[in-house]
Design goal:
The structure is a homodimer of 139-residue chains. By secondary structure, chain A is of the alpha+beta class. In chain A, 32% of the residues lie in helices and 38% in strands. The longest helix of chain A is centred in the middle third of the chain and has 23 residues, at 41-63.
């Protein structure tokens, strides 16, 4: 069981705190009556899928002793036009930086995360079509 | 289009930043090789559904001139036992605090969020069965 408490502050500002204890500020933009002091709730889903898959990939590549010097995940989410405007498509681009990294190792790590391990991806794919690609930057 | 960039820092620590510009730290627990410096990615989904529905409900109740003095959303997520351990069930309890608030107004606001407006709920319900309840605390 994973738990979170979300508490209203003012305007459209809310503080979220979950089992691990870390707090996050959420807010709406000015157009919706908020003050933009924190993340939009829908943004948390995109950051979550990036962090979840990133942790998988780093863990796998470290076990394989690959010389990874950096990893960036660019996540793009497309929403339905009509309410409730759920995510219909999410694309992830994994940009791996390192020295002499095996292309095969990256491919395998990304596939293991996307097809086997990433809990956030598995939760979101019930609604959104999730696609991904990857590239290596030698440095 | 909503976008996020998630950048690897060290250990299992990642920084996420989305279109609105606010950054969030994500990390794993010690058991998985992390250092617990930030939220677990799966926690972001629970905080996201709480914030999303909370913003809807506050907006609706303010339009109705209800005297709301507080709102807390308690979110509980149950994960599948096996990988990828997606959320299978999510329960939200809306605790509204205020003076002489109309029960009918609360019921209607919660239903409008859950059944019509909340984008995060609509995205997560593709995988997780989402249930909810509410109570009013007179104060």
């Amino acid at each position: 069981m994973s738990e979170a408490k979300v508490t209203y502050v003012a305007g459209l500002q809310f503080i979220g705190q979950a089992t691990s204890g870390h707090a996050i500020v959420m807010d709406g933009d000015a157009g919706s009556g908020g003050s933009n002091t924190g993340s939009r709730p829908m943004e948390l889903l995109l950051m979550g899928i990036g962090g979840c898959s990133g942790m998988d990939i780093i863990s796998i590549l470290k076990k394989k002793k690959e010389n990874v010097r950096g990893l960036e995940i660019n996540v793009k989410g497309t929403k339905a036009e009509n309410y409730p405007k759920k995510f219909t498509d999410i694309n992830l681009e994994f940009v791996v930086k390192g020295k002499n990294i095996s292309e095969e190792a990256i491919k395998k790590a990304v596939e293991l995360s996307m097809e086997k391990y990433c809990s956030v991806k598995a939760t979101l794919e019930g609604s959104a079509k999730i696609t991904w690609g990857w590239k290596i930057i030698e440095e």
